[in-house]
Amino acid sequence: MRKAFTMIELVFVIVVIGILAGIAIPRFAATRGDAEISSAKATIAAIRSSLANERQLRVLRGDFTAISSIDNDGIASTAVSTFSADKDGNSKSVLETTIPVCSSDDDKGCWVDSLHYRMPAGIAGVVTFTLANGQFNCDVADANCRKLTQ
């Protein structure tokens, strides 16, 4: 009656575990980058949706002024906000969200400010967005821009 595994059985199990790890680890590493890109896409979609909502609210009030900034203070920052006044002139938030701030040693995708997104590790570059004619866009000739907007 046998009470232990043979050396060949143990080596076989170690080889199988090594093969599985060799397949799984690269897939998990790619998943993190994909999640960061998806998070950036969600932020971009929220900003674009709030801009559309703001334009519609302004048109309904008879206000045809262009939206010049997505920030409260009018400069690119890490707090993205668009504001609209109600019929009594009181400000209300259409979209207000804080975006992840890049630190100097970050290798993950993050927003430098509300108009610049630094791509995750393995994908070099910063995507610059502009706010023109009420549209939040980047240069579609840039491959990283296409990754974030398509």
Q: SSE order in H/E notation?
A: HEEEEEEH
Give the spatial strand order of the biggest sheet: 3-4-5-6
Classify the helix fraction into a percent range.
40-55%
- Structural domains: how many: 1
Head-to-tail CA distance between termini: 63 Å
The count of strands amounts to: 6
- Per DSSP, the total helix count is 2
Structural class: alpha+beta
User: Beta fraction of the residues?
Assistant: 15-25%
Shape: elongated
Mean pLDDT: 78
The radius of gyration over CA amounts to 24 Å
Uncertain spans: none
Reported for the largest beta sheet, the result is: 4 strands, antiparallel
Description:
Strands 3-4-5-6 form a four-stranded antiparallel sheet. It is built from two helices and six strands. By secondary structure, the chain is of the alpha+beta class. It has one domain. The model has no long low-confidence stretch (mean pLDDT 78).
Write the layout of secondary structure elements.
Layout: H1 7-61, E1 79-85, E2 91-98, E3 110-113, E4 116-118, E5 126-132, E6 135-138, H2 143-149
Antiparallel strand pairs: 1-2, 3-4, 4-5, 5-6
Throw out a few tags for this protein.
single chain; 150 residues; alpha+beta; two-stranded antiparallel sheet; 6 strands; elongated
Summarize the structure.
By secondary structure, the chain is an alpha+beta fold. It is built from 2 helices and 6 strands, in the order H-E-E-E-E-E-E-H.
